[in-house]
Design a protein that fits this description.
- Two copies of one chain form a homodimer.
- Helix content of chain A is 11%, strand content 40%.
- With 197 residues, chain A is mainly beta.
- The first copy, chain A, has one domain: Roll (Pnp Oxidase, Chain A).
- The first copy, chain A, is globular.
- At the A-B interface, strand 1, strand 2, strand 5, strand 6 and helix 2 of A face strand 1, strand 2, strand 5, strand 6 and helix 2 of B.
Chain lengths: 197, 197
């Protein structure tokens, strides 16, 4: 069914988007820090790449742009308050790991810290920063992924339902709800459909 | 609590991500078409910008790269099967609007079609294509947003809970579940916390 529409000026209404804890710093030149980012997305499958957008005035901007490494940690619902807090307080004023009782862990491929309490963490190396306006977009290659071992099932597949990930939409955090289907389900349940050749 | 981790090679494990219907074509040089995209994200607040990643071999690649315009339509849960189907069938073989009983609507700012049945649609103009490997990333400015009028509340705010948007994570589509809190809730409920200056 179509509905009457209201036209608004362009604004950041894409939703839902991820809400992630980005880890940065190397513990030497730059202290370990966390920044909450919702302007994040996958940008390429091969090589595996993602992008995060960060304002230059943020405390995490210098370590990310100079060290060219960061981690993307997917928090579970039980860490929603910590996720939110890391987007509001600044690493200039506090140690966010300490404030939020989170544990920095060394990466396999990068010097930036992972968050031990997150079920999934992606280790990323910046390939290209792009200044866009309020934000600089960091394109990055995903070098390694650390996943919580007890969430991997017998077939070696990550059991995402037990990870209790968080979505962000228009200023609000959401739990993931009911699973509607998997990629390709609409054609598999209707064998007569045209399938892409 | 920290957990034992398993280390995997880099892969596209960022989740949840949006799952959107991208509208393209102008109805003249290129026929109207739809493509389902999960590699999408907001990349800048001012100017409002997003990015989508598309494989060059996809039928929608030529209209997007040549016309430099597309729309991003956020489907409700009731259109999950259509969303999935538009990611599996190709516009080379069929008219996806017709196949899925969706209605193309003219944009205010772009020649690409909006999907009338989607509660939110973003009209986008490509500012920069970036070849990354399997995918080309299209950075785009969001020129206008069309929202379903009856989902705007008395205060002029979009009622996202009634839009029933879809998240995509590791190959599965999800409804948004319970709202956990709004941006800043963790510090507002604890007035003693350090707030970013």
């Amino acid at each position: 069914m179509a509905h009457e529409k209201t036209i608004w000026p362009g604004s950041t209404q894409l939703a839902p988007v991820p809400a992630v804890l980005v880890g940065c710093g190397d513990g030497k030149t730059f202290k370990y820090n966390l920044i909450t980012v919702a302007w994040a997305g996958t940008v390429c499958s091969d090589p595996a790449m993602l992008a995060i957008a960060v304002r230059p005035e943020r405390f995490s901007f210098a370590p990310i742009s100079q060290l060219k490494e960061f981690t993307v940690n997917l928090p579970p619902v039980s860490l929603a308050a910590e996720l939110d807090r890391c987007g509001v307080v600044s690493g200039r004023d506090c140690d966010k790991f300490e404030l939020c009782h989170l544990t920095p862990v060394a990466g396999e491929k990068v010097s930036a810290p992972l968050v031990a309490e997150c079920p999934v963490a992606l280790e990323c190396r910046v390939t290209q920063p792009i200044e866009l306006g309020s934000h600089t977009l960091f394109l990055a290659e995903i070098l390694a992924v650390q996943v919580q071992s007890d969430l991997i099932d017998d077939k070696g597949k990550f059991d995402i339902d037990r990870a209790h990930l968080i979505a962000y939409a228009h200023g609000h955090y959401y739990q993931l709800g009911e699973c509607i289907g998997h990629f390709g389900y609409s054609v598999r349940r209707k064998p007569g459909s045209i399938v892409r050749k």
